[in-house]
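Deliverable D2.4 — example input (structure tokens):
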């Protein structure tokens, strides 16, 4: 009762109070330089409770970078806030990638990057392996039990408190401390889940929301990769068939792939691979899982996917170098900016617990089978599980302007997920780039579309036909292939 009376009195005082003064930033930002970014940025940190609900115990420091608007006068009050993917990517490390996408917006708007809790330099949940990582480990894309156990034993954190819903409250607290009343959110991949959850919890703070490669909470990661990855591979096969030279050079590509998978499941092949990063040769056991990872990773990037028919055919002839070497670029990019512990905290709390026996049975019948799922299920048996809000899996409904971008050949977040989310957002527009993979924002006319959307705050009026004109990269053909 006393608490109720206190809250009632506080509400009455608030009602009688004069209009609030403009917010004074509570964070001091200093000049800094970010790798790959021309001009000075502003950097700082901000502390939040690790346990936001208890508001006691450990405090963790969030890393913040701001690319200030070029204009001194006429600056827009609402910045663009970048929400990184993964889960587990740090946003600040993406500055050199997102700056060109938002160059024109940055004329009048700040670009804000905040490393989400558990990522980048925000109390990262990194899982370092004492053993030197060789090519075998990179190609297997596995989660050894020893690595998971060692990571848990050495974490200076409570893994249960690094979930999407908790991180969203961090972001809103930092927003207020930076003095921004509203935000233009841009999220890529897992960042779209963060953006949607922020919109659910703080709709009044979101001026616009751009979602690139939608990964809603209703998606079951990594289970969905089995169906979506096979669909992307099938579209690759169809594109090769419709290209006369590709079809003539690589006939029966799907049959060749299936035969290779069955053969490697029975008997792995030991091969010598030249590491394109160092030039050194290293022996690798090509198992069924190594082969499937070699197929799946390149599908993210249309340019790499165009090399797959050549790589698969060469592997069938005994040369695995073309197929596996292209995976190193993707694997290195992931390893450089991914906190595995935070990745597991999200997946093991928000996704894996909802995977059913029926789901696994269906995945087993797909091209990629359970190769992308079983390691996570094993790891999540040991990883502490956090508490997800009761409404977390409910559709997000809001009248906020939302732009949704999807790559038509994306193996991870294809258009079907964007369509699902758009159905509950009446002021949204879903645009598809049919020949792009994972990530649309940096390609072709996409930066211009995003700029127009954020400037106008209107997605409905956008003409996205320019995305349909972005071509699929040409397939790699051996030298001497006749036209």
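Example output (designed residues):
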């Amino acid at each position: 009762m006393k608490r109720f009376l206190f809250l009632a009195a506080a509400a009455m005082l608030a009602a009688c109070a004069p209009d609030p003064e403009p917010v004074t930033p509570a964070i001091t930002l200093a000049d800094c330089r970010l790798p790959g970014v021309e001009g000075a940025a502003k950097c700082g940190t901000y502390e939040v409770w690790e346990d936001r609900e208890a508001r006691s115990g450990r405090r963790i420091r969030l890393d913040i970078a701001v690319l200030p608007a070029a204009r001194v006068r006429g600056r827009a009050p609402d910045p663009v806030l970048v929400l990184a993917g993964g889960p587990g990517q740090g946003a600040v490390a993406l500055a050199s990638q997102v700056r060109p996408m938002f160059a024109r917006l940055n004329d009048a708007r700040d670009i804000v990057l905040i490393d989400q809790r558990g990522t980048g330099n925000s109390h990262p949940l990194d899982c370092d392996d004492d053993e030197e990582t060789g090519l075998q480990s990179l190609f297997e894309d596995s989660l050894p039990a020893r690595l998971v156990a060692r990571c848990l034993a050495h974490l200076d954190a409570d893994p249960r408190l690094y979930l999407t819903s908790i991180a969203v409250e961090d972001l809103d607290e930092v927003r207020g401390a930076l003095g921004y009343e509203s935000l233009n959110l841009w999220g890529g991949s897992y960042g779209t889940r963060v953006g949607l959850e922020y919109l659910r919890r703080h709709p009044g703070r979101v001026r616009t929301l751009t979602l690139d490669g939608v990964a809603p909470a209703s998606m079951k990661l990594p289970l969905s990769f089995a169906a979506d990855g096979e669909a992307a591979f099938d579209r690759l096969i169809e594109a090769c068939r419709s290209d006369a030279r590709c079809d003539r050079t690589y006939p029966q590509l799907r049959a060749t792939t299936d035969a290779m998978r069955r053969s490697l499941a029975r008997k792995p092949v030991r091969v010598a691979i030249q590491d394109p990063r160092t030039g050194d040769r290293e022996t690798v056991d090509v198992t069924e899982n190594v082969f499937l990872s070699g197929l799946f990773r390149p599908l993210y990037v249309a340019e790499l996917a165009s090399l797959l028919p050549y790589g698969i055919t060469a592997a069938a002839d005994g040369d695995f170098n073309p197929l596996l070497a292209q995976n190193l670029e993707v694997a290195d990019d992931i390893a450089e900016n991914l906190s595995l512990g935070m990745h597991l905290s999200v997946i093991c709390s928000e996704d894996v617990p909802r995977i059913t026996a029926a789901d696994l049975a269906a995945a087993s019948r797909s091209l990629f089978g359970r190769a992308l799922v079983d390691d996570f299920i094993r790891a999540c048996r040991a990883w502490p599980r956090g508490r997800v809000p009761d409404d977390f899996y409910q559709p997000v409904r809001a009248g906020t302007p939302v732009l949704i971008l999807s790559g038509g050949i994306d193996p991870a977040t294809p258009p079907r997920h964007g369509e699902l989310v758009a159905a509950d957002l009446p002021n949204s527009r879903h645009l598809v780039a049919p020949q792009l993979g994972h990530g649309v924002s940096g390609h072709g006319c996409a930066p211009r579309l995003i700029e127009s959307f954020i400037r106008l705050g209107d997605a409905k009026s956008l003409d996205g036909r320019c995305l349909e004109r972005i071509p699929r990269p040409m397939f790699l053909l051996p030298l001497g292939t006749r036209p």
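The chain is about 40% helix and 15% strand.
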